[in-house]
Amino acid sequence: MPASAATTLAATRPTAANQTAVPPTSGGADGQWHRTTIRQVGVLLALLPSPLLGPATWAPVAAGLTRLGWEIVTPPVPQRAPRTPDDVMRSFLAALPADRDLILVPHSNAGLYVPALTTRRRVAGYVFVDAGLPADGTSVALAPPAFRDFLGGKADADGLLPPWTRWWDSPDVAALFPDAAARELVEREQQRLPLSYFGGSLPVPGGWDERPGAYLAFGDTYDSERKAAAARGWRVATLPGQHLHTVVAPEQVAREMDALLTAIGVRPGRG
C-alpha cells in the first residue's frame, strides 16, 4: 500500500488484542477436524487476491511460479462485486477444487479468509504474502473501528467505497506500480465494495494454523503479522518493497515463494 497509508493502517488493523474470542470449531473437507500432513508433491498453489483487487496482482508471479514447475489456480474477477464476506467466500470456493491438496497463498485482506477455507477445502499449508494473519481461536473483524471511520469518509451516498487506488494520495499510489500499463491492468479489476462489508467478520476455527506455514512480507507494514508468524514457528522472509511488490518484482517474489515452499516441505509436480 502507499507509504503514507502504512502508519494509519498498521494502527487500525485487527490484532489478537482486539479480536473477539469464540469457541473453536471443528471442521475439514470431510466434516471432521484432523491435522493435515503435507505432501511432498501434487499440491496446487491457490493464489488468493484481495477482494478489493483481482488476479492481475498475482498474474506476473503466477507466470514465474509456473516456469518453476508449480501448478497454479487464481480466482477470477467475480461477475458481480461482493457485498458481504459470504460473497467473497463463495467466489473463492468456486475457484478452488475440492479434490486437490491446496497451498493457500493469500495477499492482503484475503489472508483473513484462510482459517475458514481450511474447513471447506483440503488445505495442506499456506504462505501468507503481505497479508492479514488472524489469531487462533477468534473471530476476525474485516476492519477495526478506527479504519472503518477512515473509510466512512470515502463512501458515496449509496454506501459504496471508491476503488482501492482512490483511497490514497495519487503520487503514493503511482509509486506502487512499475509503469502505467501495470497500473491499468490492476485498476481494471478493482471492485467497489460497500462500507458495510468492512463491518463484517470471519470465523477463525481453533487449530487452523497447525498446518505448515510461512510468511512473506514486503517491507514493514505488516510487521505485527510477520512477528505473529514467527511466533508460530513458521518460516518468515522479508523483501524490500511495497504492498504491490507482486507486480513490481514478480520474479523475485516467485523465487522467494519457491524457497519458502521448499522450506516447509513442498515441491512442485504431481505425486
Give structural notes.
- There is one protein chain.
- With 271 residues, this protein is α/β, with parallel strands linked by helices.
- Residues 6-40 have low confidence and may be disordered.
- It has a six-stranded parallel sheet with strand order 3-2-4-5-8-9, sandwiched between helices. A three-stranded antiparallel sheet has the order 1-6-7, with no helix packed on it.
- It contains ten helices and nine strands.
Secondary structure layout plus pairing:
Layout: H1 3-12, E1 20-21, E2 44-48, H2 59-67, E3 72-73, H3 85-95, E4 102-108, H4 114-117, E5 123-131, E6 138-141, H5 145-152, H6 170-174, H7 180-188, E7 201-203, E8 213-218, H8 223-231, E9 235-239, H9 245-248, H10 250-263
Parallel strand pairs: 2-3, 2-4, 4-5, 5-8, 8-9
Antiparallel strand pairs: 1-6, 6-7
Question: Features of this protein?
Answer:
271 residues, alpha/beta, 10 helices
Over the alpha carbons, how many angstroms does the gyration radius reach? 17 Å
> What's the number of helices?
10
Q: Note the main sheet.
A: 6 strands, parallel
- How do the strands line up in the largest sheet? 3-2-4-5-8-9
How far apart are the termini?
Answer: 38 Å
Q: Pairing-aware structural class of the strands and helices?
A: alpha/beta
Strand proportion, as a percent range, falls in 15-25%
Shape: globular
| Arithmetic mean pLDDT | 87
Helix % is 25-40%
Listing every helix as H and every strand as E from the N terminus to the C terminus, the arrangement reads HEEHEHEHEEHHHEEHEHH
Number of strands: 9
Poorly predicted sequence stretches spanning 5 or more consecutive residues: 6-40
